[in-house]
Each structure stands twice: as C-alpha cells, then as structure tokens.
Specification:
Keywords: Cytoplasm, FAD, Flavoprotein, Monooxygenase, NADP, Nucleotide-binding, Oxidoreductase. InterPro entries: FAD-bd (IPR002938), FAD/NAD-bd_sf (IPR036188), TetX_monooxygenase (IPR043683). Its cofactor is FAD. The chain is α/β, with parallel strands linked by helices. It has 14 helices and 17 strands. The protein folds into 2 domains: 215 residues, FAD/NAD(P)-binding domain, CATH 3.50.50.60; 107 residues, D-Amino Acid Oxidase, Chain A, domain 2 (2-Layer Sandwich). It has a 7-stranded mixed sheet, with helices on both faces. Strands 7-2-1-11-17 form a 5-stranded parallel sheet, covered by helices on one side.
C-alpha cells in the first residue's frame, strides 16, 4: 500500500473503514478526540439493516460478533395515537431484517477487531490544510500535527475535514429532541413500560412526537421531539432539570398520561439535542487525497439510516481502496459516485419525510400506511 490512510473520527463509519482496510492488509490510523473508548455515552439502540449496515458488518468479517450483541425481541414495534390507543403492533419473531444492538457495544466490537494502537485517543482536530500533491496536514489541540497521504473525514456533523472539500455547513432542521431515560421500567415505571412495549414505540403528531426504545437492562430511552425554532428552546433553562421537564411536558398536556410520564417521570436530567442537516444534494468536486463519509458527508435529520449509511460508506470506501491500492484517485472517484446519489435518495425518501416532526405526514395513521405500503 503506497498511500497510508489517516481517518479522523472513531465513530461507526471510521472504525468500519479501518476494519475493512485491515481485513485487506492495509494499515490505517484513526484519530479520535475522545480520551478513551468509554469517555462518554455512545447513544442508544440502533437497528442495523440487512440492506446496508449488515452488508458493512459482513465486509468487516464480524457477523458472528454482531449476532452475539443483538438484543432479542427488540424489533417489536408499536404505534400509538396521542390518546394512548395502540393503532399498530408488530411482534419480533426473530426473522426481521433490522436487529437491534446498543451503539456502544457495536462500536466496541469494531474497536476490538482492530490491531492495538490503530485508534489514537485524545487527538482533537483543530484544523486541516492542503500541502499539495494530494497531501494534507492535520493539526491537533495538543500542538502536534500529522501529514496524511490519504485523509478521510469520518468526524461527524461538524467535520474539520469537510472544509477541504466543501463550504457547506449544517443548518438547523427546525426540530429538536429532548432525551430522557427511565430505569428499571417494569417495576418503577409500569405505565410507561406498558406503553412502550417490548421494542420500539412511536407516537407521532405534526410538530410533536414521542419515540422510545426498550434497551438492555430494562431501560427505556425516550426522545421527545418538538418542531420549534432554536430561540424557543433557548428560553428553557435546561440547567434546571425540574423546570425544563415541566416546560416540555406542558406541550403534551392533552396527551395520554402513559405517554407524558415518559417526560415527567424521567430518572435523568433532560438533554436537548437539536437536529442539523446538510443540503440533501451535498457533494463536491474530486480533490486529490481526501474524502468524507457518514455525517461528515451527508448529515440528515434522523431517519433510521444514519449509522447504517456511515458503516456502508466505510465498508465501500475500504473495498474501493483495496481494489485500487495503486490508483487512489480512481478508488475515491468510484466510492463518491456511488455514495452521493445513495445518500441523497435516502434523505429525500418517503421514509425520511415521515420522520420529519414538522410534517403533516407525521401522524400515527401516516406511519402505519407507510408500513403497509412497504410490506412491513
């Protein structure tokens, strides 16, 4: 391999790329801002799809390890109306194509599959610059730098690598979620546990939405989505958990109590997470020696595909490099020509539209209709 691969970001996409390269005997170094793998919570449950995310796992040679971390029964799904009526319910019979895993366990699986030292922890990128002839310099907060022959930005929404390729920046989508947790739900929060069921629950309405997962350890992970401008959320003091919780709950005053307890009975302080997105058709002209994957390339409102696409990006980029180790520009061109239209199509799809909380299509019946149209 004549072009060492430098990956910025040890998320699912960057780690998948490093793993697929390793499978093909190509070394890579991954630089990550976090000081360690356990430095922060890695998020909740992910459904890994058989048509994209699992293809990446297979390319990484980790299907057995993946099956070992799947949470049984979590593909169950129910849709509730705002009055608590269950309008749709689907059990998990073990044959579905979207098994659920914990994001942190999936990430650790990928980390464990790499040679020791592949990931360099505690390396926060402060800037990047072109050096010419396809080479780029990456500067870190500790004052050190590294020169990359091939630089891959897998560093998420606020990528420090993206400016080498594109002037695009994420814009607020108009929707934010407030994240809460309920622990020991079956014994301590039985009404909420019954409403959520054994897997995922969604109670959609234009401008407002509950989405909840039953994670490992009898934990309910809740995302309360509201279509409001950032100034609206800025008026809420999230440093005062009690008042912030009460303010959010007030927006659901006429909803069923078994749903509102997902906010009012929270065992954690509510956390605000605004949703940002890049333009749906975001792309760039080929720049020698650098490319992007995952949210750095195609950040979209949450639609169930983000992690899957990041992993597939990493796998396909890794295979393209392995197929053309002596012609990296051809490999990058091949990868981008597939990645651009795929991510744009998913971001503009009907599935993405139903995930828009501010959409008139965001209703319980609209979601159910979509399920039946797709044969789910």
């Amino acid at each position: 391999m004549h072009t060492p691969v430098t990956v910025i970001g040890a998320g699912l996409g960057g780690l998948t790329l490093a793993r697929v390269l390793h499978v093909h005997g190509i070394p890579a170094t991954v630089y990550e801002a976090d000081p360690s793998p356990s430095a922060r919570t890695q998020g909740g449950m992910l459904d890994i799809h058989d048509y994209n995310g699992q293809l990446a796992v297979e390319a990484a040679g980790l299907m057995d390890e993946f099956h070992a971390i799947v949470l049984e029964g979590r593909q169950a799904m129910r849709v509730l109306d705002r009055d608590g009526t269950v309008l749709f319910e689907e059990a998990d019979d073990g044959t579905g194509g979207r098994p659920e895993v914990m994001r942190g366990e999936l990430r650790q699986m990928l980390i464990d599959s790499l040679p020791a030292g592949t990931v360099r922890w505690g390396h926060k990128v402060t800037g990047t610059r072109a050096l010419g002839e396809g080479r780029h310099e990456v500067a870190f907060a500790d004052g050190t730098t590294v020169t990359a022959g091939l630089l891959v930005g897998a560093d998420g929404a606020w990528s420090r690598v993206r400016p080498l390729l594109s002037a695009a920046t994420p814009e607020y989508s108009g929707t934010s979620v407030v994240e809460t947790y309920l622990y020991d739900a079956d014994t301590r929060h039985p009404a909420a546990a019954k409403a959520v069921g054994g897997g995922s629950m969604i109670a959609p309405s234009p401008g407002r939405q509950f989405f909840a997962h039953r994670e490992s350890g009898d934990t309910l992970h809740i995302y309360v989505a509201l279509a409001e401008p950032l100034d609206w959320f800025a008026a809420i003091d999230f440093t005062d958990p009690e008042s912030a919780t009460a303010r959010i709950a007030a927006e659901f005053a006429d909803w069923a109590p078994e749903l509102t307890v997902l906010i009012t009975d929270t065992d954690t302080a509510p956390v605000l997470r605004p949703h940002y997105a890049l333009p749906t058709d975001h792309r760039w002209d080929r720049v020698p020696g650098v490319t992007l994957l995952g949210d750095a390339a195609h950040l979209a409102i949450p639609n169930g595909e983000g992690a899957n696409l990041a992993m597939l990006d990493g796998a396909e980029l890794g295979r393209a490099i392995a197929a053309r180790p002596d012609d990296i520009e051809a490999a990058l061109t091949e990868y981008e020509q597939v990645m651009f239209p795929r991510s744009a199509e998913i971001a503009a799809s009907e599935d993405a539209e139903i995930h828009r909380v501010d959409s008139e299509a965001n209703t319980a019946q609209g979601l159910i209709d979509m399920f039946f149209e797709k044969g789910q």
